[in-house]
């Protein structure tokens, strides 16, 4: 059985250990400071010894498709070439880096961000099919704003080719692999999900056909970027909303079957993630972010995003209900990962609520007679709280070593305004300051 310090092969690339930084929005954009912002966000994890850095979602097209403000686009080869400064620096520390490719589809800013929508009145959202009645109802009630363009068959192939082109630019810029945003309600999940996908061409109609988009994306990436390791998140839409509101969704068994087929298609690793069919807190389980909503300095920006004070208060109320529904649950994807790992022989990466060294070893199977639940363990929010977290967790740290992040989600809501991704809870930041002074973030 493996330990956190053991190396792992993914698609022919050696990852020096089994700890990864899960994809997290950096809000670096594409401006002159983009590479420096990414370096500030990602290099500390590599310096602290983390084996694999997953850069947050980047968009494969030049317009539309961003789930949140400030996302980086990777459609332009000249821009992506500049990212070699980032990949070189990550490699200097002995770590590996993959970039996550994404298009938001019906989860794009143009459906929910009022100010952005006003500024870009002609921006359509790419849709796999006409939005389901539940989303159309939210449109009629004024919570969302849909103006969808349903992709023709040719346009689906063209979108898959954009994933391939961006992957090729990334491989040229020195990325060690490509990660697909398959389970965060973006367009990949929309193709896989019976909730969204009602197509009757080769991309819809059966579970196999709903996976065809990922098969074509795979082929495009292989053709344009070669044998670069290919990782994807895999969704199971188990959390919610439940029947009778949503009857068509991916069960846990559907998610396991997706992973099994992805291995056959040629994917090199999978990240099983339980996620809702809509954008909610199921992928960031934790507390209601009281401090983030009460921050008066952000109220105007929230109002611009949500379309006024009344709407902001409604979103906050919905957030409160969700925090009860999706309370923190340690290692909440463990059972899904375990089921997938029984069915595939490619590495399974686990993330979501992993917080302690002893728990990581248990998931990797070291201290247990059970089969491992996964082959690598990742965290996201804890890296906002402690960018150099690797130094504290690796090199045989004691079992009880626990991250500082309290999963309070104060970092999540401000990102709707384009605010940078960072920990926003002063008690946690003070504890980090104390640990910094003790020198625990220096590599042993
Ligand atoms: C602010 C924020 C941004 C995120 N951005 C992405 C992303 O770009 N792509 C993605 O696949 N997941 C994203 N996630 C989900 C994380 O990768 C991770 O699965 C989730 O936060 C659960 O892990 P944690 O409990 O360790 O935070 C994001 C999560 C947060 C909190
Ligand atoms: S604000 Fe800080 S403590 Fe709270 S979830 Fe985000 S990183 Fe963790």
TrEMBL record:
* Top-level taxon in the UniProt lineage: Archaea
Bilayer-crossing residues are none
Query: Which Gene3D superfamilies does the entry link to?
Result: Aldolase class I (3.20.20.70)
List, in alphabetical order, the Gene Ontology terms for molecular function in this entry. Answer: FMN binding; oxidoreductase activity
Q: Which SUPFAM superfamilies match?
A: FMN-linked oxidoreductases (SSF51395)
Q: Where is the NADH:flavin oxidoreductase/NADH oxidase N-terminal domain?
A: 8-234
Q: Which ranges form a coiled coil?
A: none
Per its UniProt record, what InterPro entries does this chain match? Answer: Aldolase_TIM, NADH_flavin_oxidoreductase, OxRdtase_FMN_N
Keyword vocabulary terms for this entry = Flavoprotein, Oxidoreductase
Among PANTHER family, the record links this protein to: BINDING OXIDOREDUCTASE, PUTATIVE (AFU_ORTHOLOGUE AFUA_2G08260)-RELATED
- Protein's name in the database: NADH:flavin oxidoreductase/NADH oxidase
According to its UniProt entry, this protein's organism is: Natronorubrum sulfidifaciens JCM 14089
Q: What is the lineage of its organism?
A: Archaea, Methanobacteriati, Methanobacteriota, Stenosarchaea group, Halobacteria
């Amino acid at each position: 059985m493996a330990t956190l310090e053991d190396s792992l092969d993914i698609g022919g690339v050696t990852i020096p250990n089994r700890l990864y930084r899960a994809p997290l929005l950096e809000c670096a954009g594409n401006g002159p400071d983009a590479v420096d912002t990414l370096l500030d966000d990602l290099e500390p994890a590599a310096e602290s010894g983390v084996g694999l850095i997953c850069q947050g979602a980047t968009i494969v097209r030049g317009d539309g498709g961003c789930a949140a403000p400030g996302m980086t686009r990777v459609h332009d080869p000249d821009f992506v070439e500049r990212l070699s400064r980032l990949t070189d620096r990550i490699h200097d520390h002995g770590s590996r880096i993959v970039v996550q490719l994404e298009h938001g589809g019906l989860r794009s800013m143009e459906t929910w961000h009022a100010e952005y929508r006003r500024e870009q009145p002609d921006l359509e959202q790419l849709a796999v099919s006409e939005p389901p009645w539940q989303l159309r109802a939210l449109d009629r009630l004024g919570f969302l704003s849909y103006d969808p363009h349903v992709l023709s068959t040719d346009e689906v192939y063209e979108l898959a080719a954009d994933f391939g082109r961006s992957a090729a630019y990334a491989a040229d810029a020195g990325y060690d692999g490509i990660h697909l945003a398959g389970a965060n309600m973006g367009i990949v999940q929309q193709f896989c999900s019976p909730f969204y996908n009602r197509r009757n061409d080769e991309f819809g109609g059966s579970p196999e056909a709903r996976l065809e988009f990922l098969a074509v994306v795979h082929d495009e990436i292989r053709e344009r970027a070669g044998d670069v390791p290919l990782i994807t998140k895999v969704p199971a839409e188990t959390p919610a909303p439940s029947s009778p509101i949503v009857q068509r969704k991916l069960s846990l068994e559907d998610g396991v079957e997706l992973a099994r087929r992805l291995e056959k298609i040629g994917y090199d690793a999978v990240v099983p993630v339980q996620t809702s069919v809509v954008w909610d807190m199921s992928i960031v389980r934790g507390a209601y972010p009281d401090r983030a909503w009460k921050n008066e300095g952000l109220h105007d920006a929230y109002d611009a995003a949500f379309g006024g004070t009344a709407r902001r208060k409604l979103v906050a109320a919905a957030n409160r209900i969700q925090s009860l529904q999706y309370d923190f649950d340690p290692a909440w994807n463990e059972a899904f990962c375990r089921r997938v790992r029984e069915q595939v022989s490619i590495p399974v990466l686990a993330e979501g609520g992993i917080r302690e060294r002893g728990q990581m070893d248990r998931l990797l199977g070291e201290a247990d007679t059970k089969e491992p639940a996964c082959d690598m363990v990742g965290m996201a929010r804890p890296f906002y709280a402690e960018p150099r977290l690797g130094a504290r967790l690796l090199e045989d740290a004691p079992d009880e070593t626990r991250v500082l992040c309290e999963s309070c989600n104060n970092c999540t809501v401000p990102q709707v305004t384009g605010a940078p991704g960072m920990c926003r809870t002063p008690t946690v930041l003070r504890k980090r300051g104390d640990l910094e002074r003790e020198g625990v973030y220096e590599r042993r």
